[in-house]
Amino acid sequence: MAGAARKLSGVYHAKELVYHYNKLPPYSQQEFYIGKKVAIIGVGNVMMDIARYVVTEVRAEEVTAIARRGPGEVKFDKGELDAVARNIDLQDLKAEIDRARPLVSPLSQDIDKPLALIEKVLPDAIWSGSTTHFTLRFLLSPVRILGDSAGRVCAIELEENRLEAEDGEIRAQPTGNCRTIEVDTVIFAIGDRVDDGLGLPAEGNLYARNPNPRYPMENNSYEILNPETGKPIDDIFVAGWSRRASTGLVGITRRDGINGARALMSYLDTLKNPAPFDFKKLKQRMAAIDQKVVTKNDLQRLRGVENEIAKQLGVPEYKFATVDEMLHAIDNRLTGIL
Predict the structure, then answer these.
(1) Is 325 exposed, middle or buried (0-12, 13-18, 19+ CB in 10 A)?
(2) Would the pTM of this model clear 0.85, i.e. be above it?
(3) Nearest to 237 by CA among 263, 274, 201
(4) Which tens digit of pLDDT belongs to each residue from 110-129?
(5) Can you tell me whether residue 128 is helix, strand or coil?
(6) What is the rounded CA–CA span in Å between residue 148 and residue 203?
(7) What is the CATH number of domain 2-188?
């Protein structure tokens, strides 16, 4: 489904869209068509952040969040709900939970979890100013995205699931029953992967991590495993989205980065008489890379240029919109408006 779907106008991955509305080049310069009826695949915090954008900025007519599993397994929290809680159709949500109840109840899940979260947030929730109708659908997996004669999304076909307990885990099993809903935009807020071109061993969508970490932090492993030897690779640690691609919001990723640094420092403390770091060798290696290397000093220089431009324009903040503009500012130490 993914390959064919990507050829249709109106199909996006969450990361692309998040980068776009957070003004991250080059996505900030790309056009993202968001129509009147939007389906978001996933029920985590990233889905809610995208829903916030579609509800408050785009002001689509309808937003539908789709989960392959049950209501008790939603991953969004109260903080992310605040901006869109008043747009969620509570009566529709209650009916959807009742539909799923007989399929989920035998598994002892808290099926009313999303309803309880929303009702707790509602009294103090901000009003989005939008009339977007926001609904959630559970126990459904996307099977096919349909397009019209112009190559635009016009509908999504979904297969109904049932939940089964297998080997101590709950799994979604397809039933063969399908339904189709009309949409003109589909956004996948699930299933990102790390960059396997970096040179680190990857397994599936993640870098191969040591399952038995020597320096665990909050029961997490930040160490890379060599699958061929079954041993951790010394001197290499991963954190944040390098550890789990596009998982969690900025605050969560920041905490993961701190824990990764703590794991690395624990490793460094075990080294006896480590050789002094050869910065000259590092600079030579960086110079040999066929890419522009941006240093901390470069970033400070860029921030200074952007702050100066903001001051000249009389605005609180100014950010360059493209990578080329940022590199140009860094290389030329510009202090005027570009």
Answers:
(1) middle
(2) no
(3) 263
(4) 889 999 999 999 999 988 89
(5) coil
(6) 37
(7) 3.50.50.60
